[in-house]
Every structure is written in C-alpha cells, then in structure tokens.
Amino acid sequence: MKVAIASDHGGITIRKEIISLMEELEIEYEDLGCECSTSVDYPDYAIPVAEKVASGEVDRGILICGTGIGMSISANKVMGIRCALVHDAFSAKATREHNDSNILAMGERVIGPGIAREIAKIWLTTPFEGGRHENRVNKIRLYEEKDLYV
Ligand code: RB5
Asked: Which of 17, 103, 122, 135 has a CA-to-CA distance to 129 between 20 and 30 Å?
C-alpha cells in the first residue's frame, strides 16, 4: 500500500507523527508538504492528494489541517474520493469497514498527536467489509458518474 500525506500549516505536528507511524509500519508514503512557516491554503494540499488517490497513483491519502474540515470538504470534491473526517478510534474502524474511505482527514486543533496516531493506525490496517456496504458505496459511485441510481 502507498499513501500520500499532506497538511497545511495547522497540521504539521500530526503529519510528522503519522509519517513516523508509517515508517514503523513499513508503509510506503509520499509527503506532499507543506514545508510552510507561514499560512497556506488547504485546497492546494487536499486536491493534489485526492487526485493521486483518484487516479490510482497511490492507494490512500491522509490530510491534516486545523479542524480537518477544509481538507475533507476539498478532497471530497474529487470524483472517486471518500474522505472521512475522524477524531475517534470507533469512527476510524467503522469508516474503513463500512465506507471504504480512501482518505482520512484529521484536525490538529481538535485532537493531539497521540490520538491521531492511534486513529491512523486503525484506519491504515482495517479492511473494507464489503457485502451490504459495497452496495451502498456503489450508490455513491453511481451518483458521481451520473449513471442510473438503483
Ligand atoms: C487555517 O487557519 C485553518 O482554517 C485550516 O487549517 C483548517 O482548519 C480549515 O478547515
């Protein structure tokens, strides 16, 4: 599995924490920044990560900003992206099992690096359950593709 990761200026500490987690788990990653000391715009980081996931260049993405909200809104504009904004372990597991989320967003002004690490570890290692959930995810895909909604 290959993961693209990025943050704005509000998410640098958690981004570094998750990079160290991925190194520990021997997960290949691409760090798309930011290398910022001043403020940057979260869509400039969310959209490149989302496009890499949508194109299949990487398998998953992780995005961090102050709240995680700007990153998740931006990433979810890209077709094929199911970005989940997660701040607890239960949701981290559920969104992989039920939504097959392909991007995880977190907010550094909401949670600390310890909880973020736990969330990311669960999210990175939990498989999609499929079955009835597959049908639901397919309905999102059909709507996006403006295909027949069944
Ligand atoms: C930056 O100040 C902040 O707006 C950003 O990190 C994020 O929280 C946006 O949703």
From this structure: 17
The verdict on the CB of residue 74 being under 6 Å from ligand 1 is no
In angstroms, the CA 74 to CA 93 distance is: 22
Which CA distances in Å does 135 have to 55, 56, 141?
A: 22, 21, 10
pLDDT attached to residue 40: 98
Boundaries of every domain in the chain:
2-144
Q: Which residue's alpha carbon is nearest to atom 10 within ligand 1?
A: 70
Residue type, 107: G
Assign domain 2-144 one CATH number from 3.10.20.70, 3.40.1400.10, 1.20.140.10, 3.30.70.260.
Answer: 3.40.1400.10
Q: Global pTM?
A: 0.96
Question: Is 90 exceeded by the pLDDT of residue 118?
Answer: yes
113 lines ligand 1 (CB under 6 A): no
Calculate mean pLDDT across residues 109-129. Answer: 98
10 lines ligand 1 (CB under 6 A): yes
